[in-house]
Amino acid sequence: MLFGFEWDLTNPLNFAISILPILLVGMWVTIQATVLGFFVALVLGLFLAVLKSARSRFIAWPARLVTEFIRDTPLLVQLFFLYYVLPEYGIVLPAFMTGALALGIQYSAYTSEVYRAGIEAVGRDQREAARALNLSAANTFTHIVVPQAVPRIVPAMGNYLVSIMKDVPVLSVVTVLEMLNVAKIIGDRTFDYLVPLSLVGCLYLVMTLVASAGVRVLDTYLPKQGLPLK
Amino acid sequence: MTDAIIRFDKVVKRFGDLTVLDELDFEVKKGEKVSIIGPSGSGKSTVLRILMTLEGIDGGVVHVDGEPLWHELREGSLLPASEAHLRRMRSKLGMVFQQFNLFPHMTVMRNITEAPVKVLGLGKKEAQLRAEELLDLVGLADQAKKFPHQLSGGQQQRVGIARALAMRPSILLFDEPTSALDPELVGEVLTVIGRLAEEHDLTMLLVTHEMRFAREISDRVCFFDRGQIREEGTPDELFTDPSEERTREFLKAILD
């Protein structure tokens, strides 16, 4: 029994059906971790991208260094660091929060590069027109650059959304009860790993396919020339 | 000399080893319509880009409206201009680009009203009213709600002109405004520029390859070659009886 659901070991099919609700509870945690992690990655990544494109070397360089450091160290190391080291300094977060934060930080290094590429892809002609019209740097960024960068960014961000989703099982090592962890517990207790793990694979496939389809739809409906301003 | 609204004083511009402007001296009077012609790479567009503050200078001084453009007088010496100074100076100028450079994600209306609202602080209603007048002026009164990609090149360039005018510049710079257009669309843009030249006291500086047009609308034509003004004069002087061999060669090549 787990989360109040009993399993039925009479045959594999009944077993699968009986543990499905349990796995769905874990899947819900996986989805929440994905969404929160992705949100952190989007916000922190934008922040890093802006810092990296700063004209001052004293801002751009540290930002680049941080990005490189995050990107070149394993997610698991970062996760352990947040989970075991932060509490020593009085910062105690629930395991789920720590995990989502670690995912978000790791992926912010990647999303910052996506932002940067998207921002750079908005042509010099656009910046020059904005300058000739005396638009401020902030205005140029928010009204000229960002709306045109968004459609170029969406596909790559979609890929990272799926990647984050597939990295959520890493959080199981800090006790987060996401889908894989739940499946493992079921296996530990019933000595049948085949059915729960297969189900996890199938459910993952469903999640990633749905997420990819969502991104594709978004990509199709976004005007290529940018978010329209009327 | 006091009525010169633009004055280049021994201006030098280099791109790496290439000297694009070689101690250029050049003046434009208030209200004057000046065309700049010359072979590609002669520094014609660079003159406009320096004026629009899109390109810095490596020597000399540029004066606009009696003030140095790329410098600031502080404690008696000429220092490189601050962004605040450039912003203030830039408000006197407007530019029409060869590739139009419209904002593709904005409607025609928004393209024209964006800067007046954000920079001049105009109310949205007022900016739209003025934009409608400008669209009327360029013959696009019924296209306000469209996006640039829904317009022809000629229409896009006319929006470009309206957008520049919306900032009420006293100097309007045209950087080969018809070079990117299909031949059959050149006429409609030239008509608009011609009407502006006739009806407004704007100072106009036009880099162009349209010789006939330059001849019609200009008070003065300057022939640029290798970063210098090789010859200048009234359109009649320059086109019918150029005194320099280089000018003759160029005109012969382009008019044939």
UniProtKB/TrEMBL annotation, chain A:
The record, for InterPro entries, names: AA_ABC_transptr_permease_3TM, ArtM/GltK/GlnP/TcyL/YhdX-like, Ectoine_EhuD, MetI-like, MetI-like_sf
Q: Which CDD domains match?
A: TM_PBP2
Q: Where in the cell is it found?
A: Cell inner membrane; Cell membrane
Q: Which GO terms describe its biological process?
A: amino acid transport
Q: Which PROSITE patterns match?
A: ABC_TM1
Family as reported in the entry's similarity comment: Belongs to the binding-protein-dependent transport system permease family. HisMQ subfamily.
Cite a single Pfam family from the UniProt record. Answer: BPD_transp_1
Taken from the UniProt entry, a GO cellular component term is: ATP-binding cassette (ABC) transporter complex
A GO MF annotation of the entry reads: transmembrane transporter activity
Q: Which residues cross the membrane?
A: 15-48, 193-215
Superkingdom of the source?
Answer: Bacteria
What is this protein identified as? Amino-acid ABC transporter permease protein y4tG
Q: What is the source species?
A: Aminobacter aminovorans (Chelatobacter heintzii)
Q: Where is it mainly found?
A: membrane
NCBIfam families hit by this protein: ectoine_ehuD, HEQRo_perm_3TM
Q: Does the keyword Cell membrane apply?
A: yes
Keyword annotations for this protein, in alphabetical order, are: Amino-acid transport, Cell membrane, Membrane, Plasmid, Transmembrane, Transmembrane helix, Transport
Report the membrane topology from the UniProt record.
Multi-pass membrane protein
Where does the ABC transmembrane type-1 domain lie? 27-212
From TrEMBL, chain B:
The protein's topology relative to the membrane is:
Peripheral membrane protein
As for subcellular location, the record says: Cell membrane
UniProt key word Coiled coil: no
One GO MF term: ATP binding
Listed InterPro entries: AAA+_ATPase (IPR003593), ABC_ATPase_HisP-typ (IPR030679), ABC_transporter-like_ATP-bd (IPR003439), ABC_transporter-like_CS (IPR017871), Ectoine_EhuA (IPR014343), MetN_ABC_transporter-like (IPR050086), P-loop_NTPase (IPR027417)
Q: Which GO terms describe its cellular component?
A: plasma membrane
Pfam families noted in UniProt: ABC_tran
SUPFAM superfamilies registered for this protein in UniProt = P-loop containing nucleoside triphosphate hydrolases
* Entries under NCBIfam families matching the protein: ectoine_ehuA
Return the similarity comment.
Belongs to the ABC transporter superfamily.
Return the protein name. Amino-acid ABC transporter ATP-binding protein y4tH
Q: Which organism is it from?
A: Aminobacter aminovorans
Q: Mind giving the lineage of the organism this protein is from?
A: Bacteria, Pseudomonadati, Pseudomonadota, Alphaproteobacteria, Hyphomicrobiales
